[in-house]
Each structure stands twice: as structure tokens, then as C-alpha cells.
Amino acid sequence: FAEAGAVLDEPRYLDVARRNARFLLDELRRHDGRVMRSWRDGAVSVPGFCEDYAAVALGLFALYQATGEIRWYEDATSLSTDLMDLFADPDGSGFFGSGHDAEKLIARPKPVLDNPTPSDNALAAEALLTLAAFGRDADAVGAAAGALQAAGAVAARYPAAAAYALALYAAGPGRRQVAIVGRADDSARTALQHVVWESFRPEIVAAVSDGAEAAAVPLLAGRTPHEGPALAYVCRDFACDLPTGDPAVLRSQLAGGA
């Protein structure tokens, strides 16, 4: 719903995404912050699995990119950090499906099969690569690499069984980044955001702010303050092109042009 709201410029879809996010964060988290697997009539049960943490973090990152509302970024970052703490194998070789605080099993599996839904390790890798693109997090990059390597053996023999992990490989090891800063009510900022969403660009993350909360997102650090004109910065690994307020120039930069 977050992505649909941004692509179609439909506020109703963004409202649905916000309601869903608030429900997950308010109703499916214990008082200690642990995300739970299921909810019914106000009662939760079963600690969440790796795929739960990763998928919800990705949804929150998408909602932040669609709205520029900082709380979704902060919650996504928190979940991604918890993901590494609860599920990562200490030797860096991927993610277990269950947390270290869950019921002890004879063996803790590391799910890597992407049929019919993305595996725990593929989702974890995507969430952590997204986190790293926003925040220069070396630990997240290393953990994501371990998750993709865990899927490598399956991908080599049965590519269709690791399709989601292969899609992450295809998007490249480093995400391109777009930082857009301008007043929320500025039509120029809206026009720049529309350029980002007008095409399918899975290798890109977008940080949006009016400048007042830029310190919370490393990608936005040092960008134009909220009193200035709306500008967009296209970056890779935090090395950026010259900023632009022209949607046509931004489109060219995203396409790989000058």
C-alpha cells in the first residue's frame, strides 16, 4: 500500500499503509519490544520469526520513502537492528529462522528457499541492504552478505528456488541513493518525489525530509535546510552528483545520464 500510494499518488493508500503499520507496531509488540507472530482479539502469541522482522522492516522502510515521515524510518531501523541481534549466526553465515530466545530446537534451520515466498535469509538481506543504504552500517552489509552467501549453494543448483536472493544480486551490491529535501507542502519537492517513483527502480532507496529531522537519517546529513528550495541528490555509497531541483535533470541522473 505504501508503494502503491507513492506510485499512483493516492493518499488513501498511504493512509491504509499507516494504519497497518501502527497496528503492527502497537498491537504485535510486547512491552519489551519483541515482535510477535500472531494476534487475535488483543492477545498475541508465538515470538516472531526472522521473516516477520525482515518483512515488517521492509514495509516500514517503504512507508518512510513514500511519506518522508521519520517515525517509520526509526521503527524500521530498530527492527533491523533487532533482526541481527536475534537471528544472525555469530559466525556470519546467515540467519536462523527462529530467535535465540525462542523454544530450543534440536537444530535451528536457516531458511534459504524462496518458493513460494521469499526466504528468511533473502528478506533479511534486503532489509539490511536497505538499512545500510540509508546509514553506512558496516555490520548490516556484512550480515546481508552472509545471508546471500547462505542462499548461494541453492542458487547454483536450483536458481528458481532462490529467485528472490538472485534478484538482490541483480540489483547490485550497493544501492543507489536519492536524498530529497524540501518543505512538505512544496510542489517542487513533490515533483522530485514523483520522478523517483515513476519507474520501477529496485536498486534505489529514497530519503525525504524537510531538513528539520535530517540528522536522524545519515543519508540526509548536511543537506539543504528546510527554508531553502527543494533539491534532490543522487548518490552511490554516499558519493553524490551535484544537487538539482529540476525533475528532468533528476530523471537523467537516475537513468545514468549527466
Low-confidence stretches: none
Report the order of strands and helices: HHEEHHHHHEHEEEH
Helix content: 40-55%
Mean of all residue-level pLDDT scores: 91
Whole-number radius of gyration?
19 Å
Query: How many H/I helical runs?
Result: 9
Largest sheet: 4 strands, mixed
Q: Which strands sit side by side, in order, in the main sheet?
A: 4-3-5-6
Q: Span between N and C termini?
A: 33 Å
Query: How does the overall form come out from the CA principal axes?
Result: globular
- Structural class by helix and strand composition: alpha+beta
Query: Would you report the number of β strands?
Result: 6
DSSP strand content: 5-15%
Account of the 3D structure:
The structure is a single chain. Helices cover 48% and strands 12% of the residues. It has 258 residues and is an alpha+beta fold. The longest helix is centred in the middle third of the chain and has 20 residues. It starts with a helix and ends with a helix. The relative contact order is 0.10. The mean pLDDT is 91.
